[in-house]
């Protein structure tokens, strides 16, 4: 699993690439855990995510738990229609704020900081 990181207005953006499945889930958790700082807001840009399985869903939930423990926040952006169906069926959508664009997610972080 490959991820690219950048900061936009103090928010860490993690661009998730291609697959979040049994092969990439552990690496996803490891890489994101290493980058996550206490109190930080992270937006997962899922535009290029084409496949997620139960391991990937577990990894997302594990990172949400770690974020809570770290007083951090994880938001999702650019979730595909197929991915939204998976999140709806599994009820994982309840754990995350989901935005149409990365910019909307970043703006919501700035609004919450006020």
Quick structural summary:
This protein is α/β, with parallel strands linked by helices. The chain is built from 4 helices and 5 strands; from the N terminus they run E-E-H-E-H-E-H-E-H. It is globular and about 35 Å long.
What does the model show?
By secondary structure, this protein is α/β, with parallel strands linked by helices. It has a single domain, classed as Transcription Regulator spoIIAA. The protein has 4 helices and 5 strands. The protein has helices at residues 25-35, 54-69, 81-90, 102-113, and strands at 3-8, 11-20, 41-52, 73-77, 97-99. It has a 5-stranded mixed sheet with strand order 1-2-3-4-5, sandwiched between helices. It is globular, with a radius of gyration of 13 Å. It starts with a strand and ends with a helix.
For the structure shown, list the relevant keywords.
alpha/beta, Transcription Regulator spoIIAA, 43% helix, 114 residues, 4 helices, five-stranded mixed sheet
Question: How would the blueprint of this fold be written?
Answer:
Blueprint: E1 3-8, E2 11-20, H1 25-35, E3 41-52, H2 54-69, E4 73-77, H3 81-90, E5 97-99, H4 102-113
Parallel strand pairs: 2-3, 3-4, 4-5
Antiparallel strand pairs: 1-2
């Amino acid at each position: 699993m490959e991820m690219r990181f950048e900061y936009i207005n103090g928010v860490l953006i993690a661009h998730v690439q291609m697959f979040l499945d049994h092969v990439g889930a552990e690496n996803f958790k490891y890489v994101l855990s290493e980058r996550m700082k206490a109190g930080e807001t992270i937006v997962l840009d899922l535009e290029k995510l084409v496949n997620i399985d139960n391991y990937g869903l577990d990894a997302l939930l594990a990172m949400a738990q770690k974020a809570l423990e770290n007083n951090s926040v994880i938001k999702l952006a650019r979730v595909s229609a197929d991915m939204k169906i998976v999140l709806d069926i599994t009820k994982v959508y309840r754990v995350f704020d989901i935005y149409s664009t990365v910019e909307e997610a970043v703006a919501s972080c700035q609004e919450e900081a006020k």
